[in-house]
Specification:
The protein is α+β, with helices and mostly antiparallel strands. The protein has one domain: Alpha-D-Glucose-1,6-Bisphosphate, Chain A, domain 4, CATH 3.30.530. Helices cover 28% and strands 42% of the residues. A hairpin with an 8-residue loop joins strand 4 and strand 5. The termini are far apart.
């Protein structure tokens, strides 16, 4: 989603396009084989241990939810839909934490690394429905949560698989 703005200079008004879409990117290498990491990012019983309770299935078109504890700022669940799956490589799904927000797109891409598996996680598509500066506050909160999930919780789950 974008916003057309006018850049005023001394000669004329010149239209230009400013993209208001923002994304969160997280890269981490985990000391586990791809097969194990794939299990942790696609099996609902494992995902429920490091993200939130879910009925996820790695099937394109599958609608699912993540459920957590509601609070004053959050209804307690996230509506999602699987958009792309490449076994052992990539899983992608939409993420809508409120009816008033445009869904974002989450992509987890796996690749073999010298010491295990590299995970490239992207959450993109934040726009003005998330508030000022394409949801700067929301993006900051989500980024902090992703760091905890990928750097602490996911490795704890992988150590038990």
């Amino acid at each position: 989603m974008g916003l057309v703005m006018l850049l005023l200079n001394k000669r004329e008004a010149m239209p230009y396009h400013v993209s208001m879409s923002k994304k969160i990117v997280l890269d981490i290498t985990l000391p586990y084989p791809i097969e194990k990491v794939w299990q942790a990012i696609t099996q609902p019983e494992l995902m429920s241990q490091w993200i939130m309770e879910t009925d996820f299935s790695p099937t394109v078109g599958k609608e699912f939810t993540f459920k957590g504890k509601p609070n004053k700022m959050w209804r307690g669940w996230v509506d999602c839909k699987v958009t792309k799956v490449e076994p052992q490589k990539l899983v992608q799904f939409t993420w809508q934490n409120s009816e008033k927000h445009t869904p974002t797109l989450i992509t987890y891409t796996l690749s073999k690394a010298e010491n295990g598996t590299h995970v490239h996680a992207v959450n993109e598509g934040f726009d003005s429905t998330y508030g000022a500066f394409s949801g700067l506050f929301f993006r900051s909160m989500i980024k902090m949560g992703m760091k905890v999930e990928f750097k602490k919780k996911l490795p704890e789950v992988l150590a038990q698989v």
